[in-house]
């Protein structure tokens, strides 16, 4: 029996290994992590992450050929193929601070593999890593090999949170990069054989190591660039009276452009986009490609601009102050159908409003109060370290209240900020909400999901990103 071990039981490792176990019943799959609470959650009825369809997959396989364990060294030692899916946070100090990936956890994983291995291994990069990481890992393993042979493969994930299980069941492509040697090609075929249990062969792309590593960074950079592009257009639409939804629809009909990732919003979030672009910037700078680095930096600058523009619009609309005012925050996750809050634009919006002394009442159907309090107290990039190395929950902020009902969040509020596109927010009884709010009552739609005209008929003053500006707001321009 082929044995697979995945180091890291997070958003990538857990779902990916669960699907491999489901599709390959003859393969034993073990997910290992040193975080005891996280492994306990994977073995319980309350999984540590929310992802539609994940629970069903885990329950079908767990205890049969899918296992979750804290016995890291034991299972790494026994495995034929080792996936490494550990954190690669952005460095906060030293060379490349603020841009380069911190490979501390990757390096310690590689050294541990070298220490405990007794037979030849295929080591697979599953985390998003900078180009040439495989070369560094290769050096650590070969210099500590004790006669054992290792082949390093790059197999980047292309999962979108909220649709990760479907993305794994029916991927656009599976990318496997390896050395162009007989041994490297043999390792590629071994991993390809795993995916071939359910992925059509023409969707499994084999490349050299560096192409596979760079393809992941490039894919995320291109997607983020599309979001920043449409968000830049949203600012222009507001200034000219155009409607960004109509503009997006018109350009999306062009088959060369396509419709995806053209929804204007308060900004992109998630664990990968910003981190990967910063990584790309750093690699470009290290290779003397200043103009290329500056191009990708601008994608992040526009994203930051969009978030600050939104906060400024809220404050300026409400008589230039939100001090002491109750603002309801609907949605804290970075997108719907996930509880993930990493780099969520809601974080910057909330910090901006708290900085102006607003009182926030937050509701999100999948994010806990503990997570929200933790996120708002963390320094930048702290979120990307293993959970046991993150700051413990702080004392609750006085200006912050987390509730479990949208109507409770909006009761007595001066304004509402819609920051996640949860489906339930589209069907709220806004007449009931309006009746229980302070007047004038404001709605700031950061996701363009509300019916603007209907809300204005009720009596709301509405700001929706990239839409023609409400007469009230024209007299109070946002200065970003």
TrEMBL record:
A GO cellular-component term linked to this record = nucleus
Please give the SUPFAM superfamilies that the UniProt record associates with this protein.
6-phosphogluconate dehydrogenase C-terminal domain-like, NAD(P)-binding Rossmann-fold domains, UDP-glucose/GDP-mannose dehydrogenase C-terminal domain
User: What is annotated as the active site?
Assistant: 272 (nucleophile)
Q: Which UniProt keywords apply?
A: NAD, Oxidoreductase
* Database matches in SMART domains: UDPG_MGDP_dh_C
Q: Name one Pfam family in it.
A: UDPG_MGDP_dh_N
EC code(s) of this entry: 1.1.1.22
Please write the reaction equations for the catalytic activity of this protein: UDP-alpha-D-glucose + 2 NAD(+) + H2O = UDP-alpha-D-glucuronate + 2 NADH + 3 H(+)
User: Per UniProt, where does NAD(+) bind?
Assistant: 8-13, 33, 38, 86-90, 127-128, 161, 272-275, 342
Q: Output the InterPro entries linked to this UniProt entry.
A: 6-PGluconate_DH-like_C_sf (IPR008927), NAD(P)-bd_dom_sf (IPR036291), UDP-Glc/GDP-Man (IPR017476), UDP-Glc/GDP-Man_DH_C (IPR014027), UDP-Glc/GDP-Man_DH_C_sf (IPR036220), UDP-Glc/GDP-Man_DH_dimer (IPR014026), UDP-Glc/GDP-Man_DH_N (IPR001732), UDPglc_DH_euk (IPR028356)
Functional pathway: Nucleotide-sugar biosynthesis; UDP-alpha-D-glucuronate biosynthesis; UDP-alpha-D-glucuronate from UDP-alpha-D-glucose: step 1/1
Q: Which domain of life is it from?
A: Eukaryota
One GO BP annotation is:
UDP-glucuronate biosynthetic process
Q: Where is the UDP-glucose/GDP-mannose dehydrogenase C-terminal domain?
A: 328-452
UniProt cross-references to NCBIfam families, sorted A to Z: NDP-sugDHase (TIGR03026)
Q: What family does the database annotate?
A: Belongs to the UDP-glucose/GDP-mannose dehydrogenase family.
The protein here is known as: UDP-glucose 6-dehydrogenase
User: What is the source species?
Assistant: Nicotiana attenuata
| Gene for this chain | UGD4
